[in-house]
Design brief:
Length: 692
């Protein structure tokens, strides 16, 4: 009978989303009950899941916009997001609507043809949640399933909305609210389970990934990525195995390993793949003092999406000590390697190696550096382990310069893969960092826990920057032969590949650009007046193809110009959509640069400022930037009136600006320390004025 046949063929059975098999042999189920994401290529005009399909290739089969006509691309519509914070979201396109998220997990539903607003949902996240967000209150996108939209709010709630009305259907608190967890990643939905991770490995949390029932919001399963206190017993055999690789009292700070971004799913193998983050604290010798690989940090872990059961893992960076997360894009493809078609999983994580794994077994097929890498010479394909270079781990007062740095050779910006060119497209960075032990390190949960001293000035010898090479660029990489094919210079964001022979990206200089996917030649570019760092999408409404991107300021970037009043910046966040023959223009909204105030004319005691500098880089830099330079979202403190208006302590100790997220720090620092931070910032202000 029909049902038995369907159930026997695993690939087909997975097309059926929910409920049992019909007892009669009647017509096939109505389209609503088909797993539309698994069958995404039946509706190439939609973008149903974060990476469009479960394989997360970010490849659109649409080709109406192509290499031959892309110069006729023009603006079709734009929509202003009522926010000035960071936008990293990939929109979804479902049934003619675009669903895009903004900072904190706000959700906007727009008519995908016109940009007209259908509804806006504000999760009303408390401002103090900002304190636990390492890298701005970003949200990378929503998930869709059977008439519902799911979003992870920054404060740890997973929220289900009615796709038509935006009405909240349920909200489940997915994190311990006494711990510094946040959610920044997009949920995925697999056969009625909403999969959601979390963030907070800088702050002292224990990472995990959970599944909630799409219809009720009830917890279905949870898989921890690092072991807890052994005395309390292990949740499963995988945790018992992982605990063998840790030493010391790691559980007191949680261990880290958060699943804050990448996931992919293979319906045929029924395997969910998640990427895990760095350890807490960063410094391995502090975190696990007697050594150990520290599973499952910096790993790709394969799980059963219906139960959360562990299947296999591959650890990219054993004994991780440099913030080398493996949370970067996970892309599935079938590649012909040495004459055989292999089911592979690709990742280009922070540590600088491009990995091709067998996604059935988790065994590494190949791994080569795609950017400058000094921490390891190569990956041993027999053992699967990297071969570390000597002296790449800080010890005592010995500083080490390591490439890549904590920004990675590739960060969260989505990678794409084109099955037509066979190339992976990677937003690549040549980064480096000076690591030095924090010899006074003490645990402070809820604040950055690195075990490194970030207050040292970054003074690199001249020979650690590659001559004549761009610092960041778009890299086209051949994963079969593990080699560079082309690169396009310039700092940009997430990527989209299309069957039109194009690769799209936003840039940090405020452009939206298209490149020949085969050669890297820039084929089209438009000034969109704001940074595009999120992943673009392509979709079709009726006969018309669009390409769209959400624009907004980027996280993990320092301002190049002082921005004393970020709310007066021109160009708020917006979504822009382009089509062939589009004729719309963006409004001209240039705002004159605000004059900078002069620094306080006072004499700074160097010892006081030095003390302030150290503490600043424990508690303040996450929001206000290294050396108090700001980050284009929070103000540049060097130009703050609070430096000498007599109200510094009102803000820092008494929380006078708590409504904006600047909560009181009186639980962790004394008024004297707060005052020393003020003196340190005054010194930076004076240094900046001298440098100008
Ligand atoms: Ca991190």
């Amino acid at each position: 009978m029909r049902c038995a046949k369907l159930a026997a063929a695993s690939t087909v059975a997975l097309l059926i989303a929910a409920g049992g098999c019909s007892s009669d042999n009647g017509p096939t189920r109505p389209p609503e009950t088909v797993n539309r994401i698994a069958a995404a290529d039946r509706e190439p005009g939609s973008w149903l899941s974060h990476g469009r399909t479960y394989s997360e290739q970010r490849f659109s089969p649409l080709s109406q916009i192509n290499l031959d006509n892309v110069e006729r691309l023009g603006l079709a519509w734009y929509y202003d997001l009522d926010d000035h914070n960071v936008v990293e979201a990939t929109p979804l396109i479902v049934d003619g609507f675009m669903y895009v998220s903004g900072p904190m997990g706000k959700v906007y539903a727009l008519n995908a043809r016109s940009g007209e607003e259908a509804w806006v949902f504000n999760p009303k996240v408390p401002a103090e949640t900002l304190l636990a967000a390492c890298c701005q209150p970003v949200n990378r996108g929503v998930a869709a399933w059977e008439g519902k939209i799911f979003v992870g709010a920054l404060d740890g709630r997973l929220i289900a909305l009615d796709a038509k009305s935006g009405e909240q259907l349920w909200a489940s608190v997915t994190t311990d609210q006494t711990q510094p967890y946040t959610i920044t990643g997009a949920p995925r939905v697999i056969n009625g389970n909403v999969i959601i991770g979390n963030a907070g490995a800088e702050y002292g949390v224990r990472g995990y990934v959970s599944a909630y029932a799409a219809d009720s919001g009830e917890l279905v399963w949870r898989f921890y990525t690092v072991p807890g206190n052994p005395e309390l017993g292990f949740e499963n055999a995988a945790m018992r195995m992982a605990a063998e690789t840790w030493t010391g009292n790691w559980w007191e700070l949680g261990g880290g390993g958060t699943v804050w971004d990448a996931m992919a799913y293979d319906p045929e193998l029924d395997l969910l793949y998640v990427g895990t983050g760095n350890g807490t604290p960063w410094n391995h010798s502090v975190r696990s003092p007697e050594g150990g690989d520290n599973l499952f940090l910096s790993s790709i872990v394969a799980l059963r999406p219906s139960t959360g059961a562990y299947v296999w893992h591959y650890q990219t960076t054993p004994a991780e000590s440099w913030d080398y997360t493996a949370t970067q894009s996970i892309i599935l493809a079938d590649l012909e390697i040495e004459g055989a078609v292999r089911k592979v999983l690709m990742q280009a994580p922070k540590n600088g190696f491009f990995y091709v794994l067998d996604r059935i077994t988790g065994k590494v097929i190949s791994a080569q550096p795609f950017s400058e890498v000094t921490w390891a010479s190569h990956v041993d394909l027999e053992t699967g382990r990297p071969v570390e270079q000597p002296d790449m781990r800080a010890r005592g007062d010995v500083q080490v310069i390591v490439k890549p740095g904590p920004s990675g050779a590739h960060n969260w910006d989505p990678m794409a893969f084109s099955p037509i060119t066979g190339l992976a497209y990677i937003p690549t960075l040549n980064s480096r960092f000076i690591y030095q032990d924090d010899t006074d390190y003490q645990v402070a949960q809820g604040f950055w826990n690195l075990g490194y001293d970030l207050s040292i000035r970054m003074q690199f010898p001249a020979d650690t920057r590659s001559e004549g090479r761009s610092r960041s660029y778009l890299l086209a990489w051949d994963p079969v032969n593990q080699r560079e094919v082309w690169r396009a210079d310039g700092s940009g964001g997430g990527l989209l590949a299309t069957a039109g022979g194009l690769v799209f990206r936003g840039t940090r200089s405020g452009h939206f650009s298209a490149y020949d996917a085969a050669s890297g030649r820039e084929a089209w570019s438009a000034d969109v007046g704001n940074r595009g760092i999120a992943g673009p999408v392509a979709y079709q409404i009726g006969e018309q193809q669009f390409v769209a991107i959400a624009l907004g300021r980027g996280a993990a970037t320092q301002s190049t110009r002082p921005v004393p009043h970020p709310n007066r910046l021109p160009h708020g966040n917006r979504v822009v959509a382009f089509k062939l023959g589009g004729t719309l223009s963006l409004p001209d909204e240039t705002v004159p640069q605000q004059p900078l105030r002069a620094p306080p004319n006072v004499t700074v005691n160097p010892a006081t400022a030095a003390k302030g500098r150290f503490v600043y880089h424990r508690f303040c830099f996450g929001c206000h930037g290294r050396e108090a330079r700001g980050n284009k979202i929070q103000p540049d403190l060097r130009y703050s009136d609070y430096l000498d208006n007599g109200r510094w302590q009102d803000v820092v100790m008494d929380g006078a600006l708590a409504g904006g997220g600047m909560v009181s720090f009186k639980e962790v620092i004394s008024p004297e320390i707060s005052e020393s931070i003020r003196w340190y910032v005054i010194l930076e202000a004076q240094n900046a004025a001298t440098a100008n």
